[in-house]
Every structure is written in structure tokens, then in C-alpha cells.
């Protein structure tokens, strides 16, 4: 009788399971490079706006202009993502984003940039993202097997937040040393990586379906599906709360760095990076435990914790402690957003995936400009700390409502 024990796969094998798929590896590498540039631009753009306008409210306006196309076009974009090649659609949207980054770089290098230029470019970027986001969310299911879908969603968050850690810190240094133009130029160049990765992917031919309902009928079908799925409705509500009252806090960080922490562009980069450290840790946790049956508990834990850590952040005026609390904000928010995303993707049928993710991304990304506008306006009149405290209080109230009224969320496996 053999005394040998079965081989147990190491923990990293579970954490990076989706990387065994070639197409996903290409996606992961290309997106990782592109996201470094994206976070460099996001960080530099916010500080540039504050330098030009000295207005917390204007920071909110930029976020608002970026988000408006989400409300107008994203659900329609979900229908498009179900009807055309998602890979081709992503190549188009990524190319448009690359062009807009280069335009902003040229405006800065030629010293002709004005605040209204940034608003117009933010709207253009939001328009491209409105078509990019539903396709990108649904595209993951084409890159991996269904059993690795939760892991792939979590690894997407891992690369997003790895870039969030490093990109803003690099942006702060480059901004201080060479100016914001180079941050935007590097972002433009970084899009080449993901475009090449998309072009290099190989797929089996897919039969075209002959059924073609009208765009309006297809859109209604996706919305009705969400309406009749209580768990999906509850999860989208929690994601909207995290977006409005948590993600939008980033709008205030440039002003926070200067007015509250008495820092500069480097301080702004550190705050974004700290949020990324927490989000990365949370994403790796999700990737490792993606096949466990405690998703609902993580979602509930995150929804209760992120407003508490925002409160602690708002009451802190010492940079090291601010960075610590911002790390925990990032970690708890990623539990809500990514476990909710993975749960919805595991429920929805493939034929409706683009449209349902269109609804999801409309609510998620469309909520950010509302939060940005709200927080920017409150900060302009009452102060940045007061704006953060009010948003934290609202998020905590909603989290307790879900706890008491929708216990099924805690039971999600």
C-alpha cells in the first residue's frame, strides 16, 4: 500500500490560474502596460487641472464630463458588444484613447492647454470608454474557460491595481521633474501594447447568429433580465454606492495633497498609489479564493469597511497615516466591486453578457461623475474633509440597509 500523498498544487497556481490561457496572457501583458500609462495620465491630469484652476469644484467638473457619455451611450454599447467582434471594437476604442492622450500631450508641450481643453478631451475619453468598457468586461469570457472566469476577473483587478500603485508614483516624479506633458505622451505610447496584444490573439471561428432583433428590443431584453434578478440588482446597487461615495474620492486627492497634507504632485501620486496597494492586496485575495463559497461575506465586509476607513482618512492630517487608511479604503472597495462583478458574470448567460455588463458598467462608471460633481461642489463650499465625511456616512447607511433588508447578499456563494 502506497504512503504517498496526492500532489497538492501550490497556492500561486490558484492565484494565477487564468494565465494558462494564451489569449488571456496576451491580454494581461498588453493591458498591464497600457494601464501604467492610464494611471500616469489620470494622476497628472488631476494635478494639472488643480494647478490651472485652483478649484476643487473644477476637479469635479472634469470627472463629470468624463462620465456623461456613460449615461448616454454605455447601455447601447452593451448591445453593440453582443453584436460585433469585441476584439475589433476594443482595437478601435483603444486607438481613439491613444489619439486623445497624444493630443493632450501636444497641448501641454506647446503651452497652449486650457482648462476647457481638458473638459473636452475628458468628454472624448469618456465617449471612447463608454464603448470600451462593456466590451472589455464581456471579452474576458472569450479568453478563459468558465471555471477560470472569477480568477480572470480578479487578475484584471490585480493588473489594474498594480498599475495604480506604480503609475501614480511615477507620474508624481515625472510631473515634478519634467512636467505633465511627458505623462500624457507615455500614456499614448502605452496603448500600442494592448493593441498589438489584441491583434495577436487567435480564436476559433464562431457561427454568426441569424437572429437580429431591433436595438431597442435587444436593450430592453438586457434591462429586463437585470430587473428580474434580485441578486444582480442588489450587487449593482452596492457597486454604485462604492462608485459614488468611494471611487469618486480620488477626485479630491489633488486638492487634498496641497490643502490638507501641504504636499505637491508627488504627494498626490503617493495617495493614489496607496489606494492601489490596498486594491492589489484585495484583488490577489479574490484571485486566490475565487472558487471558495464566501463571496457574499467578502462583499458585505467590504461595503461596511470602506466608509469606516474613509472616515478615518478624513480625520487624519499626517501623511503616513493617511497612506495607511487609503490602503484599507482600496482593499475594502475592491472586495465589493470585484466579487460583485465576478458573481454577476457567473450568473448571466453568454447571449446577454454584453448587455448586462453594459447595464453594470453604466451604473458603475456613470455613478462616478455624480460622485465627483457632488464631492467637488461640497469641498468647494464646506471643505475636502467635510465632503469625505458626508460621503462615508451615506455609504455606511446604505451598507446597513442592505445588511438588514437583503440578507441574501451575505449568503452568496
Note down, in words, how this protein is organized:
- This protein has helices at residues 11-15, 22-53, 56-83, 86-109, 115-143, 149-178, 181-200, 215-227, 230-245, 253-259, 265-289, 295-314, 319-347, 353-382, 384-405.
- It is globular and about 50 Å long.
- The mean pLDDT is 84.
- α8 packs across α14 and α11 packs parallel to α13.
- It is built from 15 helices and no strands.
- With 413 residues, it is mainly alpha-helical.
- It has a single domain (18-199, 215-409), classed as MFS general substrate transporter like domains (Growth Hormone, Chain: A).
Question: What labels would you give this structure?
Answer:
globular; 80% helix; 413 residues; Growth Hormone, Chain: A; mainly alpha; 15 helices
The major pleated sheet works out as: none
CATH architecture: Up-down Bundle
- Under CATH, the homologous superfamily reads MFS general substrate transporter like domains
Question: How would you spell out the order of helices and strands?
Answer: HHHHHHHHHHHHHHH
Provide the domain count.
Answer: 1
CATH topology (fold) name: Growth Hormone, Chain: A
Overall number of strands? 0
Share of residues in strands: under 5%
Shape call: globular
Average pLDDT level: 84
What is Rg? Answer: 21 Å
The level-1 CATH class: Mainly Alpha
What is the secondary structure topology, with strand pairs?
Elements: H1 11-15, H2 22-53, H3 56-83, H4 86-109, H5 115-143, H6 149-178, H7 181-200, H8 215-227, H9 230-245, H10 253-259, H11 265-289, H12 295-314, H13 319-347, H14 353-382, H15 384-405
Helix pairs in contact: 2-3, 2-5, 2-6, 2-7, 3-5, 3-8, 3-14, 4-5, 4-7, 5-14, 6-11, 6-13, 8-14, 9-13, 9-14, 9-15, 10-11, 11-13, 12-13, 12-15, 14-15
Amino acid at each position: 500500500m502506497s504512503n504517498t500523498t496526492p500532489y497538492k498544487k501550490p497556492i500561486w497556481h490558484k492565484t494565477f490560474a487564468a494565465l494558462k490561457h494564451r489569449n488571456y496572457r496576451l491580454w494581461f501583458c498588453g493591458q498591464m502596460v497600457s494601464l501604467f500609462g492610464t494611471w500616469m495620465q489620470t494622476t497628472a491630469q488631476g494635478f494639472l487641472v488643480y494647478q490651472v484652476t485652483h478649484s476643487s469644484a473644477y476637479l469635479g467638473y472634469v470627472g463629470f464630463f468624463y462620465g456623461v457619455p456613460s449615461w448616454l451611450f454605455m447601455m447601447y454599447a452593451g448591445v453593440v458588444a453582443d453584436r460585433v467582434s469585441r476584439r475589433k471594437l476594443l482595437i478601435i476604442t483603444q486607438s481613439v484613447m491613444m489619439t486623445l492622450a497624444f493630443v493632450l500631450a501636444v497641448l501641454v508641450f506647446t503651452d497652449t492647454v486650457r482648462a476647457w481643453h481638458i473638459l473636452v478631451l475628458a468628454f472624448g475619453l469618456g465617449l471612447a470608454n463608454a464603448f470600451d468598457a462593456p466590451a472589455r468586461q464581456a471579452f474576458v469570457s472569450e479568453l478563459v474557460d468558465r471555471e477560470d472566469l472569477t480568477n480572470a476577473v480578479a487578475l484584471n483587478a490585480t493588473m489594474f491595481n498594480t498599475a495604480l500603485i506604480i503609475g501614480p508614483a511615477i507620474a508624481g516624479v515625472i510631473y515634478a521633474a519634467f512636467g505633465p506633458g511627458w505623462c500624457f505622451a507615455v500614456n499614448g505610447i502605452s496603448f500600442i501594447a494592448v493593441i498589438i496584444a489584441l491583434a495577436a490573439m487567435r480564436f476559433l471561428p464562431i457561427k454568426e447568429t441569424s437572429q437580429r432583433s431591433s436595438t431597442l428590443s435587444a436593450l430592453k431584453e438586457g434591462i429586463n433580465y437585470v430587473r428580474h434578478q434580485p441578486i444582480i440588482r442588489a450587487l449593482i446597487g452596492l457597486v454604485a454606492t462604492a462608485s459614488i461615495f468611494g471611487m469618486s474620492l480620488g477626485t479630491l486627492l489633488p486638492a487634498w495633497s496641497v490643502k490638507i497634507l501641504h504636499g505637491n504632485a508627488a504627494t498626490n501620486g503617493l495617495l493614489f498609489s496607496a489606494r492601489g496597494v490596498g486594491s492589489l492586496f484585495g484583488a490577489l485575495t479574490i484571485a486566490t479564493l475565487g472558487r471558495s463559497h464566501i463571496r457574499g461575506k467578502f462583499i458585505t465586509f467590504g461595503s461596511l469597511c470602506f466608509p469606516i476607513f474613509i472616515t478615518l482618512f478624513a480625520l487624519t492630517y499626517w501623511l503616513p497615516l493617511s497612506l495607511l487608511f487609503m490602503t484599507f479604503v482600496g482593499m475594502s472597495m475592491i472586495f465589493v466591486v470585484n466579487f460583485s462583478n465576478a458573481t454577476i458574470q457567473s450568473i448571466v448567460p453568454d447571449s446577454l453578457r454584453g448587455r448586462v455588463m453594459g447595464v453594470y458598467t453604466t451604473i458603475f462608471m456613470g455613478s462616478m461623475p455624480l460622485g465627483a460633481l457632488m464631492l467637488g461642489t461640497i469641498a468647494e463650499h464646506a471643505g475636502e474633509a467635510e465632503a469625505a465625511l458626508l460621503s462615508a456616512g451615506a455609504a455606511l447607511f446604505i451598507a446597513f440597509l442592505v445588511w438588514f433588508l437583503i440578507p441574501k447578499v451575505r449568503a452568496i456563494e
